[in-house]
Design a protein that fits this description.
alpha+beta, seven-stranded antiparallel β-sheet, five-stranded mixed β-sheet, 25 helices, 22 strands, about 35% helix, binds 2-(butylsulfanyl)adenosine
Length: about 700
């Protein structure tokens, strides 16, 4: 087969990368320079981006956590960046100590307690004292190269002090100090841009920036806490000596670090840290406890995920009491009317909270929260803030209970809650201004058409000026639409031809965003259309199986339901959506606006031993895990699906196969045992015929 065939080239690159990973991590005898290895990965990432249907779960680009965004060059860490196991109770800390004691054959020595900084993990490479590379964690093996942006962080030394080791990789956490975070969000709000959910997201967004000047303006900082790799440095016997060395070299090490003799002392550190966390100008989410002795660390080693010699003690989700000023409803793109709490602003879980979800009417009544109540608000990390309940002892008698309004506050149409359902809905349809606005936001959002610059502020402007009435209109906008009419008498019109809030650059950026969205894979369009039950996964399935909007429109429920992972409910919803004249008109108008309505035909790979074979695994296998079995089938061009259908080639019955076996038998699908499955893997589909 030709190397110019992308499918072949992709497989070739994957094999090469897997082999090099094995040389590097398994045999510790790399064959390639970092630069050559990185080039292989870069080529793979860009080919997979160009041919998304060729991405398979076992591709080296698909390890959990990595975003093959292609925005940044891949950067391989010299030592893997591990994650940490968690503990939530002192008993779990004791268990951890007992495990270490068993493995070492003696009681472990001192522990080091450090604050767990809630930021973005980075690895800094210093060669002869000079900062030569910074990388994000990525999947732990390969991160993204972010040297240019990290260099703008004042507390990251570009040159180490004194006698620096020949080579060292330092690990640390980049964070955004809380006052800076609040200022940044205030600026975002003023500009009508999306707010960052918390300081960590803001830090991550600031480091993963194309323009280092933007990063530089955000006053990020760093705490370092680990040496990943070192050549030519002083001998180190303990983690506390490592931290001392980092300090001497001019790096920022958190002063709150403490060496303690045992678990009770570590637990006391945790307690104190939790009590003091609100006084710190940065976000912490726990305490990291590490064994101090480096030789013992070495002996204990790592599991696949985390070092055995360290553990993260997580703080519980933060709760605060504040006043409930009111309860309002939000009408979403599906018409669902959701009550939310309007709160006196309170700082909790790393962000200022003014609104919190109340889920639905029943929840409001079950919790018995009343307007004017003091309420407990909880927020952990990225999670949406939540009202836990009232503080009844603080009631004055002035509080008012709430019920769902009978009319939509946005369009006055009745709000109806069908018998037995939890959700109340606005009955207007998509002409309800709130629904339309939310739909447009969803359409242009990150999961949908991902149109840069099309946030609420832009959408409100376009709706307000009557420039758009629905999603398709976006693709008929021109820069002239942002120019004020000639006869505008306002004094500002003399200075800028554009409407208030717009300038040449912002208009051009928006136009570019729209232009790029025209050529997205149709899965994005499918998500953006907001068809019930069609999220990213289903959209990708529909796109890869059907390929074009025209064919989707023609497909009947049965055809759609045959697609593995789709099923009758989704199939019905999709077919119903396309049955409406308005929706079909919308699709064709999107096409007229230049939006791509079909994906390119998938390039045919070479036929493999199991091409066209679909197996269902049922019950446990002895010789391999399910994941390995799936990979083995897919590696030869076959498919593994979760449920038995007419399309199933064979059912693999392991130990206690359950209901799938009965289904296969009733449909007359061949059933093979584990030995038969092994033969299938070794001998291909012919083994199914010959028995
Ligand atoms: S040690 C091999 N120390 O927490 C040791 N990590 O949940 C692994 N983190 O990926 C890291 N503060 O990003 C360590 N004092 C600290 C930390 C810390 C924050 C982060 C780090 C890590 C994550 C694990």
């Amino acid at each position: 087969m030709e190397e110019s065939d992308p499918a072949v080239r992709i497989e070739h690159l994957r094999d090469a990368i897997r082999y090099q990973d094995h040389r590097y991590y398994g045999l510790e005898d790399p064959e390639l320079s970092d630069a050559d290895y990185d080039a292989l990965r870069r080529e793979l990432v860009s080919l997979e981006e160009a041919h998304p249907h060729l991405v398979t779960p076992d591709s080296p680009t698909q390890r959990v956590g990595i975003s093959p965004s292609g925005m940044f060059a891949p950067a391989r860490h010299r030592e893997r960046m591990f994650s940490l196991d968690n503990a939530e109770t002192v008993a779990e800390l004791e268990d951890w100590m007992a495990r270490m004691e068993r493995q070492l054959g003696r009681p472990p020595g001192d522990l080091v307690c450090e604050l767990k900084i809630d930021g973005l993990a980075v690895s800094l490479t210093y060669e002869h004292g000079l900062l030569t590379r910074s990388a994000t964690r990525g999947d732990g093996v390969t991160g993204e190269e972010v040297t240019a942006t990290v260099r703008t962080i004042q507390s990251v030394p570009l040159r180490l002090l004194g006698d620096a080791p020949a080579l060292m990789e330092v690990r640390g956490e980049v964070y955004l100090p809380l006052p800076e975070f609040e200022e940044l969000n205030a600026r975002q709000a003023a500009a009508g841009e999306r707010l960052f959910a918390n300081a960590r997201n803001a830090a991550a967004g600031s480091v993963r920036q194309k323009d280092p000047a933007v990063t530089g303006g955000r006053n990020l900082s760093i705490w370092v806490y680990q040496v990943g790799y070192m050549e030519g440095g002083p001998p180190l016997a303990s983690h506390s000596e490592t931290l001392d060395l980092l300090r001497r070299l001019g790096m920022r090490v958190n002063p709150g670090t403490e060496v303690v003799p045992d678990v009770p002392a570590a637990a006391a550190f945790v307690k104190k840290a939790e009590a003091e966390r609100d006084d710190l100008p940065y976000q912490t989410d726990g305490v990291v406890i590490k064994l101090n002795d480096l030789a013992d660390q070495d002996e204990l080693g790592h599991t696949a995920r985390a070092p055995r010699w360290a553990i993260a003690y997580k703080f519980p989700a933060e709760e605060r009491v504040t006043r409930l000023r009111g309860i309002e409803i939000n009408v979403g793109r599906t018409g669902a009317a959701t009550p939310f709490a309007v709160l006196e602003p309170v700082f909790v879980g790393g962000a200022n909270v003014e609104r919190a979800t109340l889920h639905n009417e029943d929840e409001v009544h079950r919790k018995d929260v009343r307007i004017g109540d003091y309420v407990v608000v909880r927020r952990a990390g990225d999670v949406i803030p939540e009202v836990i309940g009232p503080v009844p002892s603080r009631r004055t008698g002035e509080e008012r209970s709430w019920s769902m309004p009978s009319d939509c506050p946005f369009c006055d149409a009745p709000i109806i809650r069908p018998e037995g359902e939890k959700v109340a809905r606005c009955t207007r349809g998509l002409t309800c201004p709130s629904r339309l606005r939310e739909w447009l936001f969803h359409f242009a959002g990150r999961g949908g058409m991902d149109i840069e610059g099309m946030g609420y502020k832009t959408i409100d402007f376009l709706l307000d000026k009557g420039l758009i009435e629905g999603p398709a209109d976006i693709f008929f906008l021109t820069s002239e639409d942002f120019v004020q009419p000639e006869d505008d008498p306002s004094p500002r019109a003399a200075k800028s031809p554009y409407f208030i809030g717009w300038g040449e650059v912002s208009v051009r950026n928006l136009m570019n965003g729209i232009e790029q969205a025209r050529d997205h894979p149709i899965a994005r369009l499918l998500v953006g259309l907001g068809i019930r039950h069609v999220g990213g996964t289903v959209a990708r399935l529909l796109a890869s199986e059907i390929g074009s909007m025209a064919r989707l429109q023609e497909a009947d429920v049965d055809t759609l339901a045959e697609i593995d992972g789709v099923g009758p409910i989704i199939a019905k919803s999709v077919a119903e959506w396309f049955s409406y004249e308005d929706n079909r008109r919308l699709v064709s108008r999107l096409g007229e606006g230049g939006v791509r309505l079909a994906d390119p035909e998938p390039e045919e790979g070479p036929p493999q031993a199991l091409t066209g074979v679909t197996v269902v695994l049922s019950g446990g296998l002895e010789s391999m895990t399910r994941a390995a079995a799936k990979a083995a089938v897919e590696g030869q061009g076959g498919k593994v699906t979760s449920s038995v259908s007419k399309k199933t080639t064979a059912l693999v019955a392991g130990a206690s196969p359950g209901s799938k076996l009965a289904k296969a038998e009733s449909l007359g699908i061949p059933v093979i045992d584990e030995a038969g499955f092994q033969r299938l893997l070794e001998g291909g589909q012919a083994t199914l015929v010959s028995g």
